[in-house]
Amino acid sequence: MVAIGTSDLDIFPLALGGNTFGWTSDEDASFDILDAFTSGGGNFVDTADSYSAFADGNSGGESETIIGKWISARGNRDDVVLATKVSQHPEFRGLAPDNIRAAADASLARLQTDHIDVYYAHYDDDATPLVESLAAFDDLVRAGKVRHVAISNYSPARVREWLSLAKDNGFAAPIALQPHYNLVARRDYEGELQALAVDNGLGVFPYFSLAAGFLTGKYRTREDLAGTQRERLTTGYFSDAGLAVVQGLQEIADSRSAELSSVALAWLLARPGITAPIASANSLAQVPALLDAPTLRLTSHEVDTLTGLSDAVA
Questions:
Q1: Is 242 helix (H, G, I), strand (E, B) or coil?
Q2: What integer pLDDT is reported at residue 15 of this predicted model?
Q3: Greatest Cα pair distance in the chain
C-alpha cells in the first residue's frame, strides 16, 4: 500500500479506472470487475461525473451510478477510496463556484455516499478566476463532502498558481495530480509537471496508462482497431515507433510469463513520482494483469530498453 501524496489515504498502487462502466462494460460486468479488483487487494476507484457522456445514448453520470449501486450492494464504502471529477458533465460544465457545489451534490447522490475521498478539477476553466474555484473546493472540504482535492489536465503554470493560491488563502491543498502519461505519450508529464509533483509531494496517477488499449498488444494494425468502440481514443497512438514499443513489451512479457499490460504498468511504476497508474478493464478476464503490475519489478535493463524504444515515439 502507498499513501496518496501527504494525505492519510492508503491505496493499492494500481487504480481502477471507471470510464468503462456504463460504456463498454454493462452493470453486471462492471460489478464483476469491481468485485475482482477489490478481492485482489485493490481499493482505489477513479471515475468522473462526465463518464460516459461521450458514448451514444449516454448523458453522463453512468459510471458513478454503477459504482454507487455496487457500493450500496456490497456495503463496503469504508473499504474503498473513491475519486471523481468535476467540470465536464453536460449539465455542470466549468468550475464556477455554484457549478462545483451542484456537481458535487449530484455526484454524491449517484455514488450513494456522503463524501468523496478525492475530488478532481477535471479540466481548467479559464473563464472563472482560479481563486473562486479553489474557495468552492475548500468549502466542500470544510463541509465534509470532500476529503481531499486534486488536479487533472492543468498546465504547469496553472498548477503552480493553484499551489500558491491554496497556501496564501489557507485553502485545502491538492494532494494529487492526474496527467496523460504512458510509454507512447510522455510529453505532458515529464519535465515541469513531474518536478512540481515531486517537489510538492503530490501523488501522481497517470490516465490512459495503457494508451486506451494500444499497449495491451490487442491492436497491431489499424484494421484491428477499425469499427471498435475504442477506435477514436486509440488511433492517435499508432505509429511505427509505437508498434516497436508494443513489440518490446511483448518480448519482456514473454520472458517474464507476464501480460503486456502488466509490463507497461510496471514501467510507469518505475518512473519518478508515480503513485499508481489508472487502468480500466472491459471484462473480468483483464483484471488479473492489472493487479499483477505492482509486484512485477522490472530490471534496470528492461526499464532502459522500454524507455529507449519510447524515446523514439516523440
A1: helix
A2: 98
A3: 54
- d(Cα 202, Cα 231) in Å, to the nearest integer? 32
Q: Which three cell numbers stand for residue 76?
A: 463496503
Q: Are 93 and 128 in contact (CB under 8 A)?
A: no
Please classify residue 128 by burial: count the beta carbons closer than 10 Å to its beta carbon, then call 0-12 exposed, 13-18 middle and 19+ buried.
Answer: middle
How many CB atoms lie under 10 A from the CB of residue 224? 14
Find out whether 266 and 242 touch, Cβ atoms under 8 Å: no
The pLDDT tens digits of the residues spanning 37-67 come to 999 999 999 999 999 999 999 999 999 999 9
Please report where in the chains the cell 504498468 appears, as a residue.
265
pTM attached to this predicted model: 0.95
Cα(232)–Cα(136) distance, integer angstroms: 34
What are the phi and psi torsion angles at 310 (to 5°)? -65, -35
- Bridge partners of 152? 178
Q: How far apart are CA 116 and CA 104, in angstroms?
A: 8
DSSP string over 30-91: HHHHHHHHHHTT--EEE--TTTTTTSTT--S-HHHHHHHHHHHHHT-GGG-EEEEEEBEETT
Distance CA 86, CA 88 (A): 6
Question: Which pLDDT value is given to residue 314?
Answer: 73
Question: How far apart, in whole angstroms, are the C-alpha atoms of residue 130 and residue 157?
Answer: 12
Q: Which of 75, 82, 70, 81 is nearest to 32 (CA)?
A: 70
Could you give the residue ranges of the DSSP H alpha helices within the chain? 27-39, 62-74, 97-111, 130-143, 156-169, 192-199, 222-225, 231-234, 240-256, 260-269, 287-292, 300-311
Average pLDDT score over residue span 23-47: 98
Find the mean pLDDT for residues 238-267. 97
Cα separation of 313 and 310, whole Å? 5
Count of CB atoms within 10 A of residue 197's CB? Answer: 23
Contacts of 227 (CB under 8 A, 6+ apart): none
